[in-house]
Amino acid sequence: MTATEPARLDDLLQEPTEGEQRVTPLELFFDLVFVFAITQVTGYVSGGATWTGFVEGLAILALLWWAWSSYAWLGNTAASDDGVIRVVLMSAMASMLVASLAVPRAFGDDALVFGVAYFVVRALHIAAYVVVSRGDPMLREVVLRLASTALPASALVVVAGALDGTAQALCWAAALAVDYGGLVIRGTEGWRVEPGHFAERHSLIIIIALGESIVSLGVGAGGLALDAGVIAGALLGIAVAAALWWAYFDVVAIVAERRFRGAGPAEQVRIARDSYTYLHLPMIAGIILFAVGVKKTLGHVGDDLHAVHATALCGGVALYFLALSTLKRRNIGSFNLPRLAAAALLAVLVPLATALPALLALAFVALIACGLIAFEVRRYAEARERIRHGA
């Protein structure tokens, strides 16, 4: 089955097999540091109302996501949390924590600290892969290909830490291009992947990102009197978060995993790269941007939003739905048109949100997101029932 060939619905009704690799407690422990990193990125973007900060925040997120994703691949390959893998993951946690602490000034005074900590995270990842690949010449070749892009990209972030202005921005852009482009140019030949573990790991990271949106609701309302506006904003915010959860976990996550399992070994690796490593990033980014927007909304329910925060509030949810539709195109062969329509409506809402009270803008976002879910539940009821329950 090729990447563009639509999957048969019958193939998507198969249940997971027993006794397969699952996410380990150590991997979940490792993810706790990424939770803090996400919180730092949210604070970075929401801390100022500048487009520069907006772009820088997304660049930091892209870099941190690539580091997290690298360890997701490592855990999938190693299939263990014992011995050297345990030591590496805990050491990487320490380095990732330092990098996360440096996020607020990653383009300023702590740029070099961020760069060095990030380099250590990536170097430990390569070192662990070298150990895991002992006695496996094909995997060792794959690791060497990976190192040829991972280490230079990480070194560019260190160099960026010693620079500022345009030179620093160019180093960051080059680092991201080498990392994200390298995986495509170098190809996936020789990689192996265990679908159940990989899909579960990414589903859990979506939950973590959604948790950040809930935290942002609490932070945005923190210290404020719980008047009708704040309570309404909190309820609207949780409604949007619930719609985002529903849009992924009700059917998409199930279909994506079953498509993943049903593919041949070579196609499984390409799905892991495209559907999970690449396409889950805009989902995470969309959730985090929504968290930024809702945090500002709760703090200023009666005021209009700055253009940056309006873009985060509406554009974040739009990006999430766009990524989900693209995921369907990658796995099934067709876009989800209702989700594309919802994304377009949210994009149109961005300029309006700068002229409306923040609470009203959030209400429109909730209306579109929840309306989409209600439409899909009704419109695709039969297919949804077959996928979820095999009826």
Structural features, described:
- α5 (137-161) runs antiparallel to α6 and α7 runs antiparallel to α8 (228-249).
- By secondary structure, the protein is mainly α.
- The protein has helices at residues 25-47, 51-78, 83-101, 111-132, 137-161, 165-186, 195-221, 228-249, 252-262, 265-278, 280-299, 307-332, 337-353, 358-379, 381-389.
- The protein starts with 24 loop residues before the first helix and ends with a helix.
- The chain is built from 15 helices and no strands.
SSE pattern:
HHHHHHHHHHHHHHH
Give a quick account of the main beta sheet: strands, pairing sense, barrel closure.
Answer: none
State the end-to-end distance.
25 Å
The helix tally amounts to 15
What is the arithmetic mean of pLDDT?
91
Please identify the structural class as seen in this structure: mainly alpha
Question: Tell me, what's the shape?
Answer: globular
What Rg do the Cα atoms give?
21 Å
Determine the strand fraction and express it as a percent band: under 5%
Total number of beta strands: 0
Helix content percent band: over 70%
Number of domains: 2
What oligomeric assembly is this protein in? single chain
Segments where pLDDT lies below 50 for 5+ residues? 1-6
